[in-house]
Design goal:
By secondary structure, the chain is an alpha/beta fold. The chain folds into two domains: 68 residues; 167 residues, Phosphatidylinositol Transfer Protein Sec14p, CATH 3.40.525.10. It contains eight helices and six strands; from the N terminus they run H-H-H-H-H-E-E-H-E-H-E-H-E-E. A six-stranded mixed sheet has the order 1-2-3-4-6-5, with helices on one face. The longest helix has 30 residues. It is globular. About 9% of the residues have low confidence. One of its GO terms (cellular component) is endoplasmic reticulum-endosome membrane contact site. It comes from Ancylostoma duodenale. Pfam families: CRAL_TRIO. This is CRAL-TRIO domain-containing protein.
Length: 261
């Protein structure tokens, strides 16, 4: 006799695949029939026409709602043109690359690539931060065709002078609308106690942004999670310490101050 649970799971997966396929077809037809295609770069238009993985990242993030997904993609391609994502100058971001403010390195325990942000190296007025963040995020996303990524925010030796809410707003907005379904988790290492109020303000901002009032913040225990985003489009934000980070990242990829080899 067939296992009813396995059969049910198989039917659910088949139904999900059919829904995604239909949504993909409808979304692509709408994009190509509309003037939106004339606003895209040649590379973006090629991806919209032929690369399902890119459309899939948006569809998954918005529960396969074609209308909502279309609106988000329209905003995304306009932003990509305005931001000149494909033409970010290495020379322009070299000072931040040299200071390793943002860089890709290693894998977590789920074999996801890690995007590191060394907040202590950020200086207010660093105009290239948005560019260097997008440079690495774009490079990973396009080279791996949307494979999962985690962000590790190293707050060692960070003080209020390093806290610029505009960069946090930019990062989280970009992850939500321009690179959806890519980042699985955000690990916040050793957030100073004095910054707890700042985290509450930040999560409160995103509760308002999402029209929600259920954002929670916890300060004790290993599994400290800022529950700012709860749907598949948004990563969970975990506060980790030297003792708990090994639950996420192997020590061979960690610097010495995090308990690395």
């Amino acid at each position: 006799m067939a296992d009813p649970i396995s059969a049910g799971n198989g039917n659910a997966h088949a139904s999900q695949g059919t829904m995604e396929s239909k949504a993909m077809q409808d979304l692509r037809a709408r994009i190509l029939e509309d003037k939106l295609s004339r606003k895209c770069s040649a590379e973006d238009l090629k991806r919209l026409k032929s690369e399902d993985w890119w459309l899939s990242t948006f569809l998954r993030a918005h529960n396969y709602d074609v209308d909502v997904t279309y609106a988000v993609i329209a905003e995304c391609v306009q932003w990509r043109n305005n931001f000149q994502v494909e033409n970010i100058s290495i020379l322009g971001i070299k000072p931040l690359l040299d200071r390793q403010v943002v860089y890709l390195h290693g894998k977590d325990l789920s074999d996801f690539s890690i995007l590191w942000i060394n907040l202590a190296q950020y200086r207010p007025g660093d105009t290239g931060f948005e560019n260097v963040f997008v440079f690495w995020l774009e490079r990973h996303t396009m080279e791996t065709k949307g494979q999962p990524l985690i962000i590790l925010l190293d707050m060692t030796s960070t003080s209020m002078k390093n806290m610029d809410f505009n960069i946090f707003k930019f990062m989280l907005h970009a992850l939500k609308y321009y690179y959806p379904s890519i980042v699985q988790d955000m690990l916040v290492f050793e957030s100073p106690t004095m910054l707890n109020a700042s985290w509450r303000l930040l999560t409160g901002y995103f509760a308002i942004d999402d029209g929600r009032d259920d954002v929670a913040y916890t300060e004790t225990g290993v599994d400290n999670v800022v529950k700012s985003w709860l749907d598949p489009a948004h990563p969970q934000i975990h506060q980790v310490t030297r003792q708990s980070i090994s639950q996420f990242v192997d020590s061979k990829y960690l610097p010495v101050h995090m308990g690395g080899e």
